[in-house]
Amino acid sequence: MTLAVFFGCAFIAFGPAFALFVFTVAKDPLRVIILIAGAFFWLLSLLLSSLVWFIAIKASNSQDLTLQRGLLIFGVFFSVLLQEVFRFAYYRLLRKATEGLAAISDDDGSAISVRQMAYGKLCLCSAENSLVLLGFMLHSGSLDGRFDQMSLCVSCAVAGLGFGIMSGAFSMINILSDSLGPGTVGIFGDSQYYFIITALMTLALTLLHTFWGVLFFEGCEKSRWWVIAAVVSLHLLVAGLSLLNPLYEGSLPPVYGITLLMGVWAFFSSGGSLHSLNALCTRRKAEGESS
């Protein structure tokens, strides 16, 4: 039973992220580099926030439970702010590296923009492309040139996905280890759904980081500071909702509502439209009838 819980929770938490990696990142070395760099920047933010929280804990009275809880809340929100600072630093790095990344390509096309490096650009359905609706992934039928429009449409939210994968790994790895036993979940009156709820929360945060990456880079590239403020505010809100656990009905539904909202916003922000979705559905229906 413990093995089933382990694999079930692992697939729930990391299945969509793994699919995004396989279909939109793995085949392009440049996108792999961008994803790994994004994960590294998230690790740097975790290192600094952990250091600050550790110093605060050691300098405080460990017997004062109210103070310790206050420090925990401080650590959560400080970590969120630091993550967003490093997301901006990563944007600045990609902005500086635009010409260099284009130069190392074996293609003679024009330099790729930061917006395209970060998450690609959604394109309308055509005879050459097919849209795969999983975190608005895109798969192209023609991948001859790395920086051509087809190739750009393959990658989506790579920078944010790097943040999300590393965040999810640190959120879930110890939980998965404990799920193998020994022990019985809820034996002392706690929730029996701890593992599945944690997996669902990890999935939501992974997707949210992907969507936030899209919106944050869009806001930076077009100087829409209200978009950046919205991303930071919603990140703080989600972190605050997680503090309601184990009151899961007060945290999980709102988090998934925010995830849905961010997904729709990111889809339209990166070039998606109802027309493209309708064209996709019409094409899929025609292909099904012809086959």
TrEMBL record:
BP-aspect Gene Ontology terms: Notch signaling pathway; protein processing
Pfam families cross-referenced by the UniProt entry: Aph-1
Keywords: Membrane, Notch signaling pathway, Transmembrane, Transmembrane helix
The keyword Membrane appears for this protein: yes
Main location: membrane
Membrane disposition: Multi-pass membrane protein
Localization in the cell: Membrane
Spans traversing the lipid bilayer: 29-57, 69-90, 150-173, 193-217, 224-244, 256-277
GO cellular component, one term: gamma-secretase complex
Family as reported in the entry's similarity comment: Belongs to the APH-1 family.
Record-linked PANTHER family: GAMMA-SECRETASE SUBUNIT APH-1
Job of this protein: Potential subunit of the gamma-secretase complex, an endoprotease complex that catalyzes the intramembrane cleavage of integral proteins such as Notch receptors.
Quaternary organization: Component of the gamma-secretase complex.
Name of the protein: Gamma-secretase subunit APH-1
Organism name: Sinocyclocheilus anshuiensis
Gene: zgc:114200
